Amino acid sequence: MATKNLNQIKLRSVEDLTEAHEWLFNAQRTGTIDAKTADALNTTLKGSLYLLARLKLELAKLMIQCKIKKLQMPAGLLPGLQSEDI
After folding, report:
1. Are 45 and 82 in contact (CB under 8 A)?
2. Residues 2, 29: Cα–Cα separation, whole Å
């Protein structure tokens, strides 16, 4: 990851986010980027992490709770995220 250009980093999978976090940590540690830039990049990574990982986990938890309480979630509650996406 250290040889990749900053413009080439993709944030489309959990593995990509892991690499980006590692790059950010190492870049800040070596002084390649300043704290303000690192904070801005970290904020972007947090948003991507939420959308790619945590949101699906929260949806799975909600679906399990609905099954336990014998409730049905409305079909269009979260467009684009269905039970098969989890």
Report:
1. no
2. 13
